[in-house]
Every structure is written in structure tokens, then in C-alpha cells.
């Protein structure tokens, strides 16, 4: 599932769309990386690949955006501003995990132990010699 070579923005969008189209749902996908690493770009691509037709926006201030896709409900969360993992309960975390076919979480480390064990962890790395590309590391956690 990991791309073999670092990807530019267009390549990241293409790869993300393939992930969204092929991932077996229900699924949780976490996106890790520094500020500006491309987490939201990748989330948008995965959502579009899963069949979301509307514009997918960053949930930085809303914390969670919900969409309908061809593959079922999709929830996109940005936990950067979360104060504590317990704040997830106010967002309806348990309901999201039960009802959304696909849950995409940016800044998953803020969720602590509340992340489900079964998930795809995607980490974006910026190669030191080429800031216009990203290397994506994919780990299946079970």
C-alpha cells in the first residue's frame, strides 16, 4: 500500500484517491506528519477516492466534518486543537466509530488510547533534499 517513491502533490492526490477507492470499510485511517506535511491534502484525496462528491474542507476549527460517500458515511477529524483525549466524547467519537464507514483522523496522537486498535496509520515524511515531495509510510495496526 505504501508508494515506492516520494510523491509530489499530484502524485499524493492520485495515490490517496486509489487508497480511498480500494480500502475495505469500515476502516479508520490516521494521518500523521508535521504542520504542512500534506495531511489534509491526503485526507481530501482519500475522501474523493471513496466517493465523496462535495468539497472536502479542513476540519481544523470544527474538529469534525461528516460527508456521504459512495461507500457510506465518512468522518474527517482534525484533533490538533483537542485539549484532552476525553474531549473526543463530546465530538460523538463512539458514534462516529460505529456509524461511519470510513474515519480519517489528522493528529491522531491527540486521541491517545481512544484510537481503535485496528487501523491504518499513514505518516507523511518530507525528504530533507526535496521539500516538494512526501514519502508516505503505511502501517496496519491490529
Could you explain how this protein is built, in words?
- This protein has 142 residues and is an alpha/beta fold.
- The protein has a domain at 41-100: Rossmann fold (3-Layer(aba) Sandwich), CATH 3.40.50.
- The chain is 23% helix and 27% strand.
- The protein has helices at residues 9-22, 39-49, 93-99; strands at residues 27-32, 64-69, 72-78, 102-106, 119-125, 135-141.
- It has a six-stranded mixed sheet with strand order 2-3-4-1-5-6, with helices on both faces.
- α1 (9-22) crosses α2 (39-49).
- It is globular and about 40 Å long.
List keywords for this structure.
142 residues, alpha/beta, Rossmann fold, six-stranded mixed β-sheet, 3 helices, 6 strands, globular
Radius of gyration equals 14 Å
> Percent range for helical residues?
10-25%
Note the main sheet. 6 strands, mixed
The CATH class designation of the domain at 41-100 is Alpha Beta
The percent range for strand residues is 25-35%
Number of alpha- plus pi-helical segments: 3
Give me the CATH superfamily of the domain at 41-100: P-loop containing nucleotide triphosphate hydrolases
Average pLDDT, rounded to a whole number, is 93
Main structural class: alpha/beta
N-to-C span: 16 Å
Strands of the largest sheet, in order across it? 2-3-4-1-5-6
Any guess at the CATH architecture of the domain at 41-100?
3-Layer(aba) Sandwich
Shape: globular
| N-to-C order of helices and strands | HEHEEHEEE
Please report the total strand number as a whole number.
Answer: 6
Poorly predicted runs of 5 or more residues: none
Amino acid at each position: 500500500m505504501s508508494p515506492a517513491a516520494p510523491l509530489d502533490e499530484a502524485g499524493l492526490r492520485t495515490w490517496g484517491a486509489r487508497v480511498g477507492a480500494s480500502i475495505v470499510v469500515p476502516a479508520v485511517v490516521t494521518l500523521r506528519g508535521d504542520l504542512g506535511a500534506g495531511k489534509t491534502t491526503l485526507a481530501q484525496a482519500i475522501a474523493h477516492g471513496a466517493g465523496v462528491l462535495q468539497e472536502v474542507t479542513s476540519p481544523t476549527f470544527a474538529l469534525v466534518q461528516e460527508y456521504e460517500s459512495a461507500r457510506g458515511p465518512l468522518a474527517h477529524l482534525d484533533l490538533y486543537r483537542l485539549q484532552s483525549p476525553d474531549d473526543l466524547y463530546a465530538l460523538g467519537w463512539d458514534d462516529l466509530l460505529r456509524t461511519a464507514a470510513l474515519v480519517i483522523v489528522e493528529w491522531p496522537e491527540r486521541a491517545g488510547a481512544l484510537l481503535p486498535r485496528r487501523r491504518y496509520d499513514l505518516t507523511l515524511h518530507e525528504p530533507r533534499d526535496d521539500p516538494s515531495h512526501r514519502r508516505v509510510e503505511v502501517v496496519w495496526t491490529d
